[in-house]
């Protein structure tokens, strides 16, 4: 089975998980909507009932407190003058809790609130049973600082209960509709979101299969769109890298094929030519050696580039550009004399950079060697170093054939040659400047190329000075 095949059950599982999470959140919110308002409404009613009943009970108590002692007759006379409408029960007791007046059955038990009131403290209790609010309040009846009895009133309110139950039913209906609507919205949103995630996953699999020309199309201004944009940037870089890799392999194969073909042709000529004289044999062998040397140089440069691509770096130390230029000048002096080229230097003190000694020498050697090889007879090469602030500058300038302006942006590209015929004549592979460019970048430097009037080329290399980077 191909592991890259889209897995529908996995996608469905993700959708179900998202839907479950969001639906659970919706249920919790709706549950709070159905409980908190009802509890708050009930508590408000309880508070209102307590305030109202305690006030009415206090009025009754104040009226009865004018008596020195409470009897059935005087209690009945006082209460007959007071408003007790709307009350389910009115109970008055003596100090021992014996009922003196009760609008209910005389044998009905006294509420526990009465006992609290006889101890000198007011008491209130309310109960809601979905059909009515049953609220009772009891206060002591005091005369001259003595408790002479207690008053208890009970209210049965079905209207408030019916209103709250009605609100609860409406909230329940609204919650049910909201839950169904939320479920639809959640499913739609989840599908939209997972569809975009699926597009990203399919895009990754497409790129993983090697199709670097793939570009994802996502609209919007969110994190998924940003992720899709990053994927497109990645595939664009991969496509560019793949194109460069293929071109590199093609160019490298071509560069290796040419000397190998020459070596094979020369060796076949030696084998097939019977009685070849020593001079001709020596000439053929010399050509074979030259091609082998060219093959070796190209191979070494390829290995150098490969090591740089892999991030391999030697021991970094302080390297003086002046020493590197002096050493390079001595090595290339024979080539300069053979080419009728004069090499001049203008070297400043204190141009020290952090790099490997070999890399700095390779940079200087490649630039100066090219300036000599591609110069004109009786031409000049000027090598300068200078310290400018926190930068060390190396300048290699020649009076040679120059580089056309259209070719300058490509001179650091691997295997690129401005004049292919002349490059091959001098044994060039098109890798030297690429190696220089990569080495300069490795140590935080910059390299530029520009023309010189009336003809010639100037390479400028800037490095961070040692201790500045």
Describe the structure in your own words.
By secondary structure, the chain is of the alpha+beta class. It has three domains: 11-164, PAS domain (Beta-Lactamase, 2-Layer Sandwich), CATH 3.30.450; 223-307, Helix Hairpins (Orthogonal Bundle), CATH 1.10.287.130; 314-464, Histidine kinase-like ATPase, C-terminal domain (Heat Shock Protein 90), CATH 3.30.565.10. Helices cover 55% and strands 18% of the residues. The protein is built from ten helices and twelve strands. The chain has helices at residues 8-64, 72-80, 112-118, 158-208, 223-272, 278-309, 321-338, 357-373, 420-425, 432-442, and strands spanning 89-93, 99-102, 123-128, 133-143, 146-157, 317-320, 342-347, 352-355, 380-388, 391-398, 446-451, 457-464. The strands form three sheets. It has a five-stranded antiparallel sheet with strand order 2-1-5-4-3, sandwiched between helices. A five-stranded mixed sheet has the order 7-9-10-12-11, covered by helices on one side. A hairpin with a 5-residue loop joins β11 and β12. It is rod-shaped and about 160 Å long. The model is unreliable at 1-10 and 420-427 (pLDDT under 50).
Number of strands: 12
What's the architecture of the largest domain in CATH terms? 2-Layer Sandwich
Stretches where pLDDT falls below 50 for ≥5 residues? 1-10, 420-427
Number of helices: 10
Please give the CATH class of the largest domain: Alpha Beta
The CATH superfamily of the largest domain is: PAS domain
Biggest β-sheet: strands ordered side by side in the sheet: 2-1-5-4-3
Q: What sequence of helices (H) and strands (E) makes up the elements? A: HHEEHEEEHHHEHEEHEEHHEE
Q: Sketch the major β-sheet.
A: 5 strands, antiparallel
Query: Which percent range describes the beta-strand content?
Result: 15-25%
Structural class: alpha+beta
Distance, first to last CA: 53 Å
Number of domains: 3
Helix content: 55-70%
Mean pLDDT: 81
CATH topology annotation of the largest domain: Beta-Lactamase
Mass-distribution shape: rod-shaped
Radius of gyration over all CA atoms, rounded: 51 Å
